Amino acid sequence: xxxxxxxLPRKSQAQCVNCGVRAQTVxxxxxxxxxxxxxxxxxxxxxxxxxSDLFLQDxxxxxxxxxxxxxxxxxxxxxxxxxxxxxxxxxxxxIGCQSDLTGPMAYSAQALTDVTVxxxxxxxxxxxxxxxPEMAVRFACIAAKSQENAFATLASVGRGSARERxxxxxxDLESRSQxxxxxxxxxxPLPLTQEHIGDALGLTSVHVSRTLKGLREDNIVSVQGRSxxxxxxxxxxxxxxxxxxxxxxxxxx
Amino acid sequence: xxxxxxxLPRKSQAQCVNCGVRAQTVxxxxxxxxxxxxxxxxxxxxxxxxxSDLFLQDxxxxxxxxxxxxxxxxxxxxxxxxxxxxxxxxxxxxIGCQSDLTGPMAYSAQALTDVTVxxxxxxxxxxxxxxxPEMAVRFACIAAKSQENAFATLASVGRGSARERxxxxxxDLESRSQxxxxxxxxxxPLPLTQEHIGDALGLTSVHVSRTLKGLREDNIVSVQGRSxxxxxxxxxxxxxxxxxxxxxxxxxx
DNA sequence: CGAGCAATTGAAATGGGTCAAGACGTGTGG
DNA sequence: CCACACGTCTTGACCCATTTCAATTGCTCG
Lengths: 253, 253
Known about the structure:
homodimer, about 250 residues, alpha+beta, four-stranded antiparallel β-sheet, about 35% helix, globular, DNA-binding
């Protein structure tokens, strides 16, 4: 659980100009000189082992994180132990920023795989934004984007059947994974247990199992071990209620 | 209200320095000179009758809105007509800003009561943000806040029973309403049908009716007509799973 | 006074939850 | 190399919260 003991704070880090996720995060809009300024501000890169928490809800935290690689989940714990997973974050995600910059965290974050994050200090971030307005604008866009994602999940969980919810999640994960993969075909890693999926969708792991079985029997996906293979992208996105991104033309209405 | 404001170049609109919701919205961080700049940028105040849409999802929209008074709901329509209400917005809310500033809207917005909004043009908002980074930062905080709200709703909808969900919504509305009301006691206006409540919580209006009946019979709330009276705030927040101040110790199984 | 929408109530159907038992890995230690 | 332990997945049987369908009662407003 405790990760701070395990990680050595060292300044040796990848250089920002070579950052693999630069285009997707707050630094996207910055030129090289500005990037150097951010680099000076940056604390370190940090490796997080799978299963450990970046931060816990209701606790204080002084950092902001950009995911370099690996998966992180944001989740909320209820008093009686029930868990709601709010979001699965992949490379490029900017994590830890909330409305009350100085208050305790509103939710928890846990690594699903081994993860590398770029760490910024939270203190002074608004001064940095003030000096680099492009960064602030970019940050605002990211915040808006993540609000839209939350709305989409809410619609799926609030209004969808189990089958629709699972399809929506898989479709979402698949299309987001594509952004980070070179080849479009082939199975993609899915570091989630069925309990994770259930906790993200408001379902029981038992029922997730049954639902996946149904999708498997309809030859829509093939989930084995920790990998997901989408067999019928069209059908999957259809069920999910999402418009397939690059779908072959077909009269849908 | 006393009007000791100095004379400023006026359009046909309320003056920004006197804005009633200034402290809660994107302008909060701005000084008077910057506020004048925003005022020059501002298009107009606009009255929206109850029931009409500010904008529709998938359609283009050139404006951004700050709610001056009244209630607005943000909602998502699914292909088959099911509706998910994402958020109820009250005075001070900043609406219409999304990650893709030039693209079609990701969700719809409809007035639940007669509403007055302050209208900004969408084009050039990023330039404005760039000139006033405080405003961008403020916006990001607001967006983050709304994401946190969405997460809280998601946890409620994904993991709560009908009773818990309804209690959570009522508790949330009640505490937010308090911010805009002088006297703490007494019934507060609730411009929602039970169908609205159901669509916000992933429930049927029929079941909302039954659930409210249960809360009424337990003397926790009294909902009559379009107004809500919280009778037992402690119990309501207890059921909602929100901490009102400090829950009395009680062995919850 | 009647039209129309919102709320209530009852009865029946069902999607998903719960409980419980097994199967299937996969990594560990002997 | 085996055995065993632990976590995950699967499957069956039953249960129940919520939905669905349907009828009735208000309430508001023209």
